[in-house]
Amino acid sequence: MTVLEQPGAYHLAPPPAWRPRLDPAPLLPDGEPYHLLGTEADLDPELLSRLHAGVVRGRRFNEQATALTKQGRLAVYPSSTGQEAAEVAAGLVLAEQDWLFPSYRDTLAAVARGLDPVEVLSLLRGDWHSGYDPRATRVAPLSTPLATQLPHAVGLAHAARLRGDDTVALAMVGDGGTSEGDFHEALNFAAVWQSPVVFLVQNNGFAISVPLAKQTAAPSLAHKAVGYGMPGRLVDGNDAAATHQVLGEAIERAREGGGPTLVEAVTYRMEAHTNADDASRYRSSEEVEHWRAHDPIALLERELRALGRLDEHTVEAVRADAEDMAAGMRDRMNADPVLCPTELFEHVYDQRTPQLREQSALLRAELAADEELAAETAAGGTGAERAGVPSGADEGVRRPGSETR
Amino acid sequence: MTVLEQPGAYHLAPPPAWRPRLDPAPLLPDGEPYHLLGTEADLDPELLSRLHAGVVRGRRFNEQATALTKQGRLAVYPSSTGQEAAEVAAGLVLAEQDWLFPSYRDTLAAVARGLDPVEVLSLLRGDWHSGYDPRATRVAPLSTPLATQLPHAVGLAHAARLRGDDTVALAMVGDGGTSEGDFHEALNFAAVWQSPVVFLVQNNGFAISVPLAKQTAAPSLAHKAVGYGMPGRLVDGNDAAATHQVLGEAIERAREGGGPTLVEAVTYRMEAHTNADDASRYRSSEEVEHWRAHDPIALLERELRALGRLDEHTVEAVRADAEDMAAGMRDRMNADPVLCPTELFEHVYDQRTPQLREQSALLRAELAADEELAAETAAGGTGAERAGVPSGADEGVRRPGSETR
Amino acid sequence: MSTVETISAADGTTAARKPVTMAQALNQALRDAMLEDPTVHLMGEDIGTLGGVFRVTDGLAAEFGEDRCTDTPLAEAGILGSAIGMAMYGLRPVVEMQFDAFAYPSFEQLVSHAARMRNRTRGALPMPITVRVPYGGGIGGVEHHSDSSEAYYMATPGLQVVTPATVADAYGLLRAAIVAEDPVIFMEPKRLYWGKADWSSAEPERVPPIGRAVVRRRGASATLITYGPSVPVCMAAAEAARAEGWDLEVVDLRSLVPFDDVTVAESVRRTGRAVVVHESAGFGGPGGEIAARITERCFHHLEAPVLRVTGFDIPYPPPMLESHHLPGVERVLDAVGRLQWESDWTASGVSSAGGFEGGGE
Amino acid sequence: MSTVETISAADGTTAARKPVTMAQALNQALRDAMLEDPTVHLMGEDIGTLGGVFRVTDGLAAEFGEDRCTDTPLAEAGILGSAIGMAMYGLRPVVEMQFDAFAYPSFEQLVSHAARMRNRTRGALPMPITVRVPYGGGIGGVEHHSDSSEAYYMATPGLQVVTPATVADAYGLLRAAIVAEDPVIFMEPKRLYWGKADWSSAEPERVPPIGRAVVRRRGASATLITYGPSVPVCMAAAEAARAEGWDLEVVDLRSLVPFDDVTVAESVRRTGRAVVVHESAGFGGPGGEIAARITERCFHHLEAPVLRVTGFDIPYPPPMLESHHLPGVERVLDAVGRLQWESDWTASGVSSAGGFEGGGE
Ligand SMILES: Cc1ncc(C[n+]2csc(CCOP(=O)(O)OP(=O)(O)O)c2C)c(N)n1
Ligand SMILES: Cc1ncc(C[n+]2csc(CCOP(=O)(O)OP(=O)(O)O)c2C)c(N)n1
Ligand SMILES: [Mg+2]
Ligand SMILES: [Mg+2]
């Protein structure tokens, strides 16, 4: 029972598992968000111009998408106005073989990567859950359940590394999403596996109505990196050049086998959470105005102008390009999408089960009966009435007053 | 679109949400686990004696429980041999009004707190899921799903604070459990709410067969505290005095409104994961021997002896006390528990549903029929045969070879 | 929805009534529960300052303070897990899950702890927790915003599962859920949130307790058994069925657990035919259990097998296709038509449908 | 278990056979799948060095390296979530959940992603993931180690749910699950892990594909419909029933999703009577769906309602009481006795049992 008899036990060196295995200092983020615009830093004007065109297009994209909600052409739109710098930097920084894992707010990052705006908007338009081919575009579907896409990014990056590919995954999440268990599990797996993945947290101050102070007591979200043994970086998310650089460094580090990085981009959501949200319920317009003065477009334009790379002609060209994109969106989104109701049964499994075959036949029969009926009577019953829901359903989208996503 | 026209935007101070809100330095744990035994520290001999009696009893408890598995009296036992210092410190450090949230390995902490060993062993004996009254003892049921008890501890501590009580919750978890999402969510809630809760991670080097290096890449588990904005402490978990002191400080801090603390106690599991596990599959006996030299009982005895507080008489008394406890356990555990099968229906809901009333009646009728049959034939059929499972079931417990909990 | 409202308004109280939405009645129930019992605490995402994305908690943080109506961090397991701890300390938490599918992260806490803590501790730690889950579709919600998840909860012993279809039940059942000593999954049909009925907040009418179904419409030809968002659909179907000469009875289950076998069996024995209607996917959904129970209890009274009209066995569709998925009046009537009426006895009927090689193409 | 083994061994191959446990056959299936397809990756807790707590992955890390048989951190959502990402990149992950109840933390990843990713992306991102879940009781496991969680998975469109009851099926179905293009929840009955049958690893007998039920025993009086751990119980019951003059047919479902309506309906139409047997709680469990489907398809062939013999509607009991909970031979025979045999036609039968006020005391 007692081990008194064991001589000298205590004088042995404590076992090796004891000591912290690495110095935390290099993992800690800076005390201030890193920024480049407006500093003396020597910046690549080509890159700045590309970022500028991107954020201008991005702002226009957000405006157009919001307008489409008013016309009933989108079920809902979570705008990234104010956050265009981080969104565009994320979309532009990746190499071709890299993957992007956007959250539901990050349509813009996908568009900046070059995806078709209309395809990216499928989820929010409501014609299908995801409208682009993730393998072809190397953009995962927009993730609605918060933080759940982060383990996917880790798994994909891990698989790529196992295969010997030099693919990196960039995974995006909001400040609110960092509270989810999946955030924790993803970062831990990534660090243990040294997976080539970069986590980009856009801290825009709010999770719907909940301010950061109710979300975390951490010194910063970037400080969470320490607990996983990966470096944390804090960056001015409205500074497109700084965000692009920090992400780029993290991605190259990952590509070279250096493992994951957590990047916190500090920014602000200028609009309400979605078009259905009323932000005046939880924040002051002074706060919003304060941030308007730190607009990502203005920051870039000031810099470009100082470099002599922005004249009215360039501004006009960039604006025209953005208008073109918006006009295209408008035209194509105003056309009703072609829908095939029995497609509902096509992709549930690789092969339809016998049960789904039956159900598909049932729906097909109903649709045929409807058509017959419609042929008979001018103003015949439609699928919507069949479903016993209020009319209006056939516009594709009905949203009761305060419904938010 | 462009905001070129806005003059001077960039010269406004960046918004306040930007800066890390507190200095991470005070949150960081020491580079070495804190220890007291064998140092020049001035220690309370009374406390050392209590801790010594506790760890000796604890070791004996573990031995006796393991022996009971061999006799088929316990379904399984996860021993805390080697970890008695942390277990006993946790059990003894709490004030009467405080709550303990043990994990499945922490029977010993509950026993050290004063609970009846036989009641604490119910889960592992298999007569009921939990054998003591958590409200009366202020010990939550042993938690089997890892880390799930941590949010409970936070909620309870939060509730106590809302009520104005000075209750603190001490929640225990293993190194493996820190990887679960619930660990993350619990620590975050506690920090945001500044709940009076202390998280004690016993880092015993393994989660069943998985070594710490496959569990985390963090500098230490205590470093995870930084990401939540709470202090992390690293302590020698085999040093009962140091662990008791670090926990005591954290508890008093919590009691006074200072919020939560994460404590990592570095220790080692000397036995296999449970009696059903074969540790030789995944670790060397050298490693085990290395740790045997840092035995928690030996550390205390050396200190007490140096203080002149441990003579053979004391050792004998402590040993006798432990033997008494073990004998009591043996006697009581060797008696078959009185079981009432229809109790299965009694606690599912506050009131049995009509369906459960029917099912209870069915079982009662079956039991009555069995009894009649048994009365008729000397070697009649029993419930076990009725259930169509191999005989042996009535011994209460059958474990196939490698099944582990 | 008007049919149901009429019914709920016809139960008879005298106080002044005015049109109230289901969301408002739920809000009132929370307010009254908080006034009556200081241990009632509300927790969830955006339920404080914002008043919830459906405004069900509107004004409660202002009235009772943030400690009693708390915006939590964004973590559902953390919310439910800390609610369990609060209940251990004697509080009575009411949790809001923002949408059906966002309750899934809390599944382990729900199934392994909330549902079992009382049983685990022989009654020492009851779990008087109400989990409010806005559920179901028909609101044009994008993916993950229209799930019908009740089958998961029904399959979990230790949970009660309750769902209102009328304004009066919304108030009455939520009050009952909050005072219940067991965890109640309180499923709020999203598309009925803005349905109005005349109702008096000063003198809310009494409703039957949890565990009791209610016959919403008397009929003699067949029984429609339903709950939540499908109740108005069935009421409309019963109305439309009159034209076909069918007099349908409609049973609103209200409580899926405990299940009211008596009311259901009494009705089906009387009518001899039954159709179970719900939005949730059919396979493995609530309807199988319900149909099986009816058959076990009413076999010799049945003129036809109990049929089911449910959502298809598919993930909930995107908004533009959801109308095809939701069980509607026509689909209910089609099923009623397949109940082997005397006139059809020569036809092959349902028993030849299905089968592994059978079906569509 | 010997009856079943005899049956599985009777399917007829010629290679040398020797007694093999189900756990060994599963191990062999994993090994063969890994040899055949380099994209097969195993992930889970303790599956590497230790070989899994049930030793099903024994030796595979040594043979294929840690990258293909990986000990993950202890986090089930992380395991399944990263498996999803690996599948997105073209790998074919096989995940081990250590015990049934420890799969719950991964519920959101399973339901909201694994089950829906193919559908979400119109087939662009299939999810060929196998999730191995040791399930069920009868092994003296303490709380959380004996859950039967199949009802949750059955209610989730997009998942296939498969469970073997014989050594040959353990091998054959696991191979089929791994090559399937969809997520398969592969439920391994814990208490059959050590059951042995003569089997040849060199020439494993072919078994019917996923989606097909198998008649394990021919009979004429009534059909027992069952799966997984209850198959041996039903075989024993059928044997015992001969003494009572009943000739029972036993259908082993093997695959709960997709469900084999043809085999089941064919059998029940022939026998006219059916009992569904499973360990999982009855209410909201698989049996309700199965009974309802049978009734829909075989109504006019049924001499009695389809009955169910299942676990009680309670959390799984502690080890010392589990024998009372598990459906056993006697309970199955009691149910068969209530199938309204001609001789009983004057008695009241099952249809008067139950009801809200009814039951016990
Ligand atoms: C798991 C989960 N819980 C809840 C929600 C509902 N929800 C949608 S967005 C949102 C807030 C997200 O905040 P944040 O992560 O900061 O991202 P942001 O909206 O600011 O981009 C919430 C609670 C969800 N989508 N997923
Ligand atoms: C959620 C969950 N997943 C898996 C398990 C199975 N399991 C039981 S103990 C254990 C290892 C625990 O390791 P650790 O947290 O370090 O505690 P220790 O056993 O070392 O005390 C595992 C994986 C579990 N109990 N709960
Ligand atoms: Mg945010
Ligand atoms: Mg450990």
TrEMBL record, chains A, B:
UniProt keyword annotation of Zinc-finger present: no
GO terms of biological process kind: branched-chain amino acid catabolic process
Compositionally biased spans, kind Basic and acidic residues: 395-405
Keyword Nucleotide-binding assigned: no
Domain of life, per lineage: Bacteria
Residue ranges of the region described as Disordered: 374-405
Required cofactor names: thiamine diphosphate
Protein name: Pyruvate dehydrogenase
Lineage, uppermost ranks: Bacteria, Bacillati, Actinomycetota, Actinomycetes, Kitasatosporales
Automatic annotation (TrEMBL), chains C, D:
SMART domains per record: Transket_pyr (SM00861)
InterPro entries for this protein: THDP-binding, Transketo_C/PFOR_II, Transketolase-like_Pyr-bd, Transketolase_C
Pfam families, alphabetized: Transket_pyr (PF02779), Transketolase_C (PF02780)
Location of the Transketolase-like pyrimidine-binding domain: 20-195
SUPFAM superfamilies: Thiamin diphosphate-binding fold (THDP-binding) (SSF52518), TK C-terminal domain-like (SSF52922)
Enzyme kind, highest EC tier: oxidoreductase
Any one GO MF annotation of this record: branched-chain 2-oxo acid dehydrogenase activity
CDD domains, A to Z: TPP_PYR_E1-PDHc-beta_like
Gene Ontology BP annotations: branched-chain amino acid catabolic process; response to nutrient
Spans through the membrane: none
Cited Gene3D superfamilies: 3.40.50.920, 3.40.50.970
Cofactor(s) the protein requires to work: thiamine diphosphate
E.C. number(s) listed in UniProt: 1.2.4.4
UniProt keyword Oxidoreductase present: yes
Keywords: Oxidoreductase
Entry keyword Methyltransferase: no
Protein name as it appears in the record: 3-methyl-2-oxobutanoate dehydrogenase (2-methylpropanoyl-transferring)
UniProt organism field: Streptomyces oceani
